[in-house]
Amino acid sequence: MACEWRERLLGELTENFDGRRVPVKEADRRPGPYPYYGASGIVDYVDSYLFDGEYLLIAEDGENLRTRNTPVAFLARGKFWLNNHAHIVRGNDQADTRYLMYALQAADINGYLTGSTMPKLTQGNMNRILLPAPELPEQRAIAHILGALDDKIELSRRMNETLEAMARAIFKSWFVDFDPVRAKAEGRQPAGMDADSAALFPDSFEDSPLAKIPKGWRMGTLGDLADSPRRGINPSDIAPGTPYIGLEHMPRKCIALSEWGYSDGVASNKFRFAEGNILFGKLRPYFHKVGIAAIDGVCSTDILVIVPKLSHWLGVVAAYVSTDEFIQYAAGVSTGTKMPRTNWNDMARYEIVVPDDKVARAFTEKIKPMIDTIRSNIHHSRTLGAIRDALLPKLLSGEIRVRDAEKLAERAV
User: What is d(CA 238, CA 246) in angstroms, rounded to the nearest whole number?
Assistant: First the structure.
């Protein structure tokens, strides 16, 4: 039980590898397959690595040390690069690395921070953080229980990535490369497509002001297919506990909006959105923050709410606004130097190939099960996360026994 556990200094439980960190300016990074980590997670992918294995990364600086909107301690596995905004340690022969991550997530570290404007956790202060330190087998048991929940969350995240990649590939095939039309023009059956779906596509191309497009399709604009209603709401009219999405909750290059906060304490006007609406980060649009809402809620006014004019255009609209080409366009028409913003009027003028209505409907119907599964995975993962967060302090305090927690985790997974 916890009363038998003594507290130990983090520095007594870890090996430190801070001396091997190497920061690389963005302009000097070469793209590659290896994650480049900073204080709050992956910030880029590069062509080389410094570390190979399982390590614990602990934020060294940044406002997140106080707000803790994202975990201040997280695992990095495999081959990766690390800048100097995160400490890197590993459990020694008296500590399990994953257990240390969970213990730090539950710890109050405010007393170890320095700096009033920009919080900082020095290596010396980090080493002085006191953590409950049961025997190694108990640490591993606790880490196993909580890790099973996190592993399931990670599995859902990867599934969502796969589903999104599949949807993007279908969009590119149908509406960028025009593969079904090319196949029919050459007298071939479109690959991977049933006869009914293939019949929706023309078998030839025609000229347009920009390029050849499928016969019967037309050139148009994003505004032909979608609107961005400004559904503003005052803080006093927002019900307590309403889901709130800010730019900080939106991942880059990912339509799965799995994180959100709540409206408690919101002090400025927001926009209302509904489940299934498309959210687009208009501040610094080059950050590529675009996603489909998994819940009803309110969002920052730095986020545009995009709604297809007809429900069966959802897939096409969502796919277009999340392409790299559209992001480049939105960034190009942004105004402002330090804080560039785009706006719907300019975005609505973006030229697109508008397919036949039946093809648009078929595309949305094809990817809708993928979107529904992504949404279901998000809600399940948040449930698992809530269970993990409830178990964490109880396990570390000894309020709940490992075998009891194990049963709860097994039922949840």
Answer: 15
